[in-house]
Prior knowledge:
Blueprint: E1 6-17, E2 20-31, E3 35-39, H1 46-54, E4 61-66, E5 69-70, E6 81-84, H2 96-106, H3 111-124, H4 140-152, E7 158-162, H5 170-187, E8 191-195, H6 198-204, E9 207-212, E10 215-220, H7 222-227, H8 232-238, E11 241-245, E12 259-263, E13 268-269, E14 277-288, E15 293-299, E16 304-309, E17 321-326, E18 332-333
Parallel strand pairs: 3-8, 3-9, 6-7, 7-8
Antiparallel strand pairs: 1-2, 1-4, 4-5, 9-10, 11-12, 12-18, 13-17, 14-15, 14-17, 15-16
Helix pairs in contact: 2-3, 2-4, 3-4
Amino acid sequence: xxxQTQELVIHxxxxxxxxxxxxxxxxxxxxxxxxxxxxxxxxxxxxxLLRAIAGLATLDGGRILIAGRDVSDLSVQxxxxxxxxxxxxxxxxxxxxxNVKFGLLAGCQSQAQATARARELLxxxxxxxxxxxLPAELSGGQRQRVxxxxxxxxxxxxxxxxxPFSALDESLRLPLRRSFRRLQRELGQTCLLVTxxxxxxxxxxxxxxxxxxxxxxxxAPPLELWRAPASxxxxxxxxxxxxxDARHIPEPLRGQGRHWVAPIGVLELGExxxxxxxxxxxxxxxxxxxxxxxxxxxxxxxxNLVMWAPHEAxxxxxxxxxxxxxxxxxxxxxxx
Length: 336
């Protein structure tokens, strides 16, 4: 894709904090109107990259372009981005309406213009009935919606979100992030979402960039990540793959690399058919999760596997040796 069609382009971003290199030649791009999730564990550099894009940290090397304009040396105010933080950062002594208006008034809009824009945004986030309340009178989910409305008030070309849902209870987090995704699509707002939550990233994003130790390991649409992780490290981090030692599978696959992976969802009970891979494994444990049962198994060769089953499944006793099948087409050899 050409640079002109991108809302954000990062070339060779480098950043060192103290004696630690936190960004290592990062290249990244987000198309206009899309949401990209930057996914990684704590300390991988994802928040440092967000801060550099916002102008809150200065790169040691590389360039940042927003809407085709090099903003690498511009101030926070000159970059035209909105930021939503994990802990809201609302003014406790200002009403909901005044919080949303704050940036508009600082940008020299009139009281009437700022009030009209703020009320429009509060309607978008379904908080118009709470306009006169103080932040302390709102729930966590409502406060985060105020923070979102405030970040959108000045119509930023790029919206940056730093773990915006992680402080919320799950009962609030799931509906809020889905309502945010609907709003993002409705507005056509370009977004960069920083998160450590794999489910959140894969559910919300058009593209997901998986980050390790200051580098982007893979950037792809969610389905591509599931179907074709670029490395064993990416597959392990996503947590949705079984790893099988190549010494324990038939020829000709056995000689083509040490480790193979297959999506957890394709492993089934039953004997192998039509050239599939047959395995025998002992049921070691079973856990009840929100959407499924999770079975932990160990093959007779010593590989640890996971299998999913519906809640209504009738399961054998722990310790039972089971016949399992796996389609060979689902197996994928990955580099380290």
